[in-house]
Amino acid sequence: MHHWTKMSKDEPPDRLSQELRSEDISFAAADASIERRRKAKEAKLQAVEQQLAQADQQSVKPNEQGPVGRKQELTSQDLSFAAAAASTERRRKAKEAKDAEAQEKDEERRQTVRVFIQSVDRACYAWAGRDTFFGQAPILVRGNFASDMHDRADYDELAWDRFDEQRDQLEKPFLSPATLKTLEAVVGADFANEAKWVRPVHIGGWNLVFVFELVASNSRVVIRLPRPHVAYFAREKTSLEVATMNFLSQHTKLSIPTLFSSGKHPDVGYYLISEFVDNNGLLSRALAKPEEDEDEAPVLNLALLGCELEAHLYDVAVHVLHLFQPSFAAIGSLNQTQDGLFGVGGRPLTQNMYNMVYLANIPPSVLPAEDKISHTADEWYTVLAEMHMLQLTFQQNDLVKDEDDCRNKYIARHLFLKLARAGKLSTFGFMDDTWSAQSKSDRRGYCRAPSNAGSFRIWCDDFRPANILLHKGRGNGSTVIDWEFTYVAPTQFVLDPPWWLLLDVPEMWCSGMEDWAQQYGRCLDVWLRAMERAEQNSNETPSGYSLSEYMQESWTTGRFWLNYAARKSWAFDSIFWKCLDERFFGKRLHEPASQEPLWRKRIGLLNRAEKMAMEAFVDKKMKQSQNKELLTWSEREAQDRRAEVLFKHDQGPLRQCFATIIRLVGHVQTVVSNLRGNAQ
């Protein structure tokens, strides 16, 4: 999901504006210099005129070296001054044209559709009944690339510019009558029925969505295509979404659109054809402040804190319970064999990975291999922590402000990675937590941590009210759409309360993360009541898990923040220092007035080799950031750098042997689990 708002008047100027302001300074300096020279020339000319007048009175004929000669010389200077003035005027006009272009560009950035990291599919706008050719709702970014918001780091501006350029270049053919004819033929062939396109075309964060009417049956279907400029993951994304939707429809009670078919067409690429859901709009709009612009990111209407909100949340809590039921022996994406069997067969494909590749220019080769699955929660936490370190390593532009900021980010990531590798993150905040500073001061009896191996749950990065369609008729339930970022994850993720209760995310909250947490606490009680009621009315709650109890503890202990930070590279730093650091390591003494020196409070947790590695990293990072460009990494270079920053070369044979044994045991558990599940 994207989270957007209008760009503020106080936001930092883009590069072009900064460049023009620097030119203003140079023009002002040039004007001042010319003015000084002009005044000196006028004073000199006035002196010559006085000499000529005196010569006339004395009847002295001036020669070429006399006042007349000097006057002629000054006249030539007039020409040079005129030329300089003309040059300045040309530069000024060019600057004004460039300035106008910059203003136009700024205005365009305020009005145009922006693809964001959290990438929402806007297909639901058609289902709400809009009737325009292009249903591309204006998605307004909260701040620009150089955002001065403290709770979310910036994406790479150059990568984002390239992303937009590729979108403009590659997407145009998909928005043509020829594409519509092709899609009509594809849909018509699938249903042996004439298909007619229904306006509009819906442009989402990662997909293009078209609605077609089947003329003979007077019914509608939806066909969805990955947007062409984000096609790197298209095959993988489509395959895992097909497997996920088929599994959920066959093995859960979730209400999701029926998937009719999928495939690849030579002209339009990969596609999905699914049921069109007749609806009363999005749950997010029902929960949002009524006076808000429909095209802006919705924010929860706090006036709903009561029966109406609880009724809506109860419906979602039922979905959550249904989604919690299936259990798997490994972490990864679902796949489906030709025999129709399901299993975990590849890496999780996350929203964060998409953002790393497309908005930060991070080489795909450093991400987990496509066939990589994890067999313990600790292993997946380690993979997530490594990706945070890789984001800091490979995003060249706009991520760090200065050396102290780089050290802050490095130490936060390095400590998080050390905790993950030590197997500590999976137990944090549970009864099993015996390592954190928080556990030593808070001895309350909390719930036990889920199993570290052999039992994991389905998780969707994009499960939220903006992907839930309300059925027509009051009390008729809802349907959950968009399952592209769904995978089997540590059970810890599902035991957290939903991050979407306020509709907007903490790192983008206009009043800051602290205010977000305060407002979140107000509606968390409503969610917990809804979840308790759903559990009481359900016969599906697994033995040993009371989701409402686990969710309450997650918020109290900070497990919520740990898992949220683990999934979000650009929100990680603020959450680590504000919500996790002191829970992990204890109070920071003599808290500095600003965030920049925070690394000094935890530098003692690094050994000598790690400190030296940090300084070498900071030095290299700052040198790289001086060159505003997008680096191209060969696969070998990227892998070597990855091994260097992750200390992969330091893993001894004993640790490698242990990791191999864990993987083998996990593979056996996966095979046994899949056989049991398919037998059932």
UniProtKB/TrEMBL annotation:
Residues 1-22, 48-108 are annotated as: Disordered. Residues 48-62 have a biased composition (Polar residues). It comes from the Eukaryota. Coiled coil: none annotated. Residues 7-22, 96-108 have a biased composition (Basic and acidic residues). SUPFAM superfamilies: Protein kinase-like (PK-like) (SSF56112). Signal peptide: none annotated. PANTHER family: AMINOGLYCOSIDE PHOSPHOTRANSFERASE DOMAIN-CONTAINING PROTEIN (PTHR21310:SF37), AMINOGLYCOSIDE PHOSPHOTRANSFERASE-RELATED-RELATED (PTHR21310). This is Aminoglycoside phosphotransferase domain-containing protein. It comes from Akanthomyces muscarius (Entomopathogenic fungus).
